[in-house]
Amino acid sequence: MRITRRRMDFLQKIKQLYEATKLPVHYVRVAELLGVSKWSAYEMLKTLEKEGLLVRQYEVNQGEKFPGRAMVLFALTRLAEAVLSGSTLEEKVPLREWRQVRQRLLSLCAGLKKNNLRELIEQLFEELPGLERPLIFSAYMITLLIAQLQTLSAKSLGLVKNVVLGAAKAETGLAMFAGAAMGSMLKTAAQLPPLSQIVCHLDRFQDNLADLNQSEQALLMDFLEEALEKAT
Fold it and tell me: Which of 23, 35, 21 is nearest to 10 (CA)?
C-alpha cells in the first residue's frame, strides 16, 4: 500500500489523539491540529476509511446546540496500526479487488439470518478451490465458518465472537477463531459440508496465516471482527 506523506500525517495525528484520550476522534479536532479546513479533514478521513485504515463510529452529541444528534467519529484499524509501525502491504492483492470481495462477503454475513444457509454454504464451498490469493481465500473461509456456525446456534457464534475479540494480535485472533469454530462444530454431526471436507480447507487457511504479512493479517482480522458483528 502506498501511503502519501499527507495521509501519514493524518494517521499519526489521529493516533496521537487516541493515545491521549483513548477515544475515537472527531474530524474537526483533527482539522484544528493539522491547520486544515474541517471539510478537507472530513474528506481525507472518509478516504482513509475506504482504504481500510479508519473505521467510522457514531456517538450521541450531548451538547446544548444539537442535543441527541449523532457525531461521526473515527478510529484506527489494525491495518493503520501496522502501517504506522512500518509494515507495508505488499501488492499481492489489488486493494480494489479486496474491497469488492470484502463488501460482498460482509453483505452475505449480514443476510445470514434471512437467506438459505444450506445454499450459501454450498456456494461458498464450491468457490473455495478456485481462489488462489491467500487473503481472498482466507476471507471466504472465515465467511464459510461463520455461516456454518449459524446452523448450530446463536450461542455458539456468540462464544466464538467473545473469544476472538479478546485477542491482542491479528494472527492470534484468526487462529483462535478457526480453532473455536472447529471446536463448536465437533459437537454436532449436522455438517454442511461434512467436517472432513472443512478440515481440508482449514489446513490451507492455517498455512495462509503464516504467509500473510502483518498488514494483510490486520486486513483479515478487521474483516473477521466486522463479519462477526454483522452475523450476530
Answer: 35
Domain identity same for 110 and 163: yes
Residue 90 scores a pLDDT above 60: no
Contact 112, 151 (CB under 8 A): no
Average pLDDT, the chain: 82
Give the mean pLDDT of 44-53: 88
Prediction pTM value: 0.69
Q: Which structural domain range is residue 62 located in? A: 5-76
Q: What is the mean pLDDT of residues 56-73?
A: 70
Structural contact between residues 42 and 56, judged by C-beta atoms closer than 8 angstroms: no
For 66, phi then psi, to 5°, come to: -130, 70
CA 63 – CA 67 distance, rounded (Å): 5
Asked if the structure places residue 88 within a domain, the reply is no
The dihedral over CA atoms of 104, 91, 222, 52, expressed in degrees to the nearest 10, equals -80
Mean pLDDT of 1-11: 79
For 146-159, b/e burial (b = at least 16 CB within 10 A) is bbbbbbbeeebbee
User: Which is more confidently placed, 174 or 200?
Assistant: 174
CA distances from 190 to 149, 150, 184, 201 (A): 11, 12, 12, 18
Work out whether strand 54-60 and strand 70-76 pair parallel, antiparallel, or are unpaired: antiparallel
What DSSP string describes 210-222? HHS-HHHHHHHHH
Report whether pLDDT(151) > 70. Answer: yes
Q: Which of 76, 111, 127 is the last residue of a domain?
A: 76
